[in-house]
């Protein structure tokens, strides 16, 4: 049996730990051969492949990024892309393909399986944690740790100068990183894409925090936007199905807070720091378990399936179902953490 592996979409910590677990179990337990496809679907389309053996995965468990490279290439947007992937995999005698990716990459896997019979198994990853059908996506825990550590540090400098510190975290469509790191880091305001915010309310929270002699920390997801349509900085590009993130919402917010409250404000954009570096112990654990179960799906011929975390169990769900909708922050959860605002 020969198994292909690829990592697609935006990177996150823990991808290498999945690759290692797949190869270790596949070689040691089942005697399979592995081929890595470089740069996501691009390598599958262009037949850019590397051998993956035990030696190739040695020492990669704690390494961030992906040894296979990644891209956001969509073969369904390329002439004959799906057909080329099918032909390349057949020529290499690949019997199963493990696809480690987010909603876009796995959406392609679902279609390749349903429409072209390409035997795919999915592993869900994104620091945003917004994939439906799994309690956690790979990379989220590390990103929350990174953001929380940053917020902890920003408290002390904010207090020294009695300034507002606005921290912009990632989260285009869902505020999971903002809400988890904001709660863990003791933020005084948390703004998420699911709940358009009222600038006057934000300023009222900031002011009340100063009145209590504290320097406020405002955590804002990069996809959060104000309620007032006139305040939205950038609109979706015409013909672009994916919402364009508000670039610079953190800086914009700091300027508005300064103008409206008269208090000094600074912004820290955490950006790609949240995607880089070594995975947390939880993400290494999750990655390893996802990898071990993914290779078992291949062994069982259970294609069109994605591994997912439910409670403490790893389960199998149809990829098509898992990629059909986003997992966003429940308004009740947002209301629950709102007790700490202001
Ligand atoms: O991984 C998803 C994400 O973290 C979003 O939250 C963020 O808006 C985006 O990546 C930015 O990624 P890039 O700069 O690589 O396009």
TrEMBL record:
**Which InterPro entries did the record assign?**
ATP_PFK (IPR022953), ATP_PFK_prok-type (IPR012003), Phosphofructokinase_CS (IPR015912), Phosphofructokinase_dom (IPR000023), Phosphofructokinase_III (IPR012829), PKF_sf (IPR035966)
Pathway involvement of the protein, from the record:
Carbohydrate degradation; glycolysis; D-glyceraldehyde 3-phosphate and glycerone phosphate from D-glucose: step 3/4
For the site labelled Important for catalytic activity, the residues are 125
Q: What is its EC number?
A: 2.7.1.90
Alphabetically sorted, this entry's keywords are:
Cytoplasm, Glycolysis, Kinase, Magnesium, Metal-binding, Transferase
Entries under HAMAP family matching the protein: Phosphofructokinase_III
The entry assigns this protein to a family as follows: Belongs to the phosphofructokinase type A (PFKA) family. Mixed-substrate PFK group III subfamily.
Subunit details for this protein?
Homodimer or homotetramer.
Give the protein name, as stated in the record.
Pyrophosphate--fructose 6-phosphate 1-phosphotransferase
Q: Which organism is it from?
A: Streptomyces bullii
């Amino acid at each position: 049996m020969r198994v292909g592996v690829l990592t697609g979409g935006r990177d996150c910590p823990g991808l290498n730990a999945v690759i290692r677990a797949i190869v270790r179990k596949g070689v040691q337990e089942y005697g399979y051969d592995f081929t890595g496809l470089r740069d996501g679907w691009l390598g599958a389309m262009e037949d850019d492949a590397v051998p993956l053996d035990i030696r190739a995965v040695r020492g990669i468990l704690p390494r961030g990024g992906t040894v296979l490279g990644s891209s956001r290439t969509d073969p369904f947007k390329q002439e004959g892309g799906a057909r080329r992937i099918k032909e390349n995999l057949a020529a290499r005698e690949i019997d199963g393909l493990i696809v480690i990716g987010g909603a876009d990459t796995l959406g392609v896997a679902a279609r390749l399986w349903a429409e072209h019979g390409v035997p795919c198994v999915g592993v869900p990853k994104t620091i945003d944690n917004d994939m439906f059908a799994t309690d956690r996506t790979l990379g989220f825990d590390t990103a929350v740790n990174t953001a929380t550590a940053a917020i902890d540090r920003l408290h002390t400098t904010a207090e020294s100068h009695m300034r507002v510190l606005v921290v912009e975290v990632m989260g285009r469509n869902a505020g999971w990183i903002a809400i988890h790191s904001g709660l863990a880091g003791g933020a005084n305001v948390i703004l998420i894409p699911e709940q358009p915010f009222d600038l006057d309310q934000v300023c009222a929270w900031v002011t009340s925090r100063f009145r209590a002699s504290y320097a406020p920390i405002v955590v804002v997801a990069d996809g959060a936007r104000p309620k007032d349509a006139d305040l939205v900085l950038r609109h979706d590009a015409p013909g672009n199905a994916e919402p364009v993130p508000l670039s610079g919402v953190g800086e914009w917010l700091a300027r508005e807070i300064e103008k409206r409250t008269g208090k000094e404000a600074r912004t820290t954009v955490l950006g790609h720091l949240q995607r880089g570096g070594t995975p947390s112990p939880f993400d290494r654990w999750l990655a390893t378990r996802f990898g071990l179960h993914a290779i078992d799906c291949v062994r069982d011929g259970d294609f069109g399936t994605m591994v997912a975390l439910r409670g403490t169990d790893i389960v199998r769900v149809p990829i098509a179902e898992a990629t059909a909708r986003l997992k966003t922050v429940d308004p009740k959860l947002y209301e629950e953490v709102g007790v700490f605002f202001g």
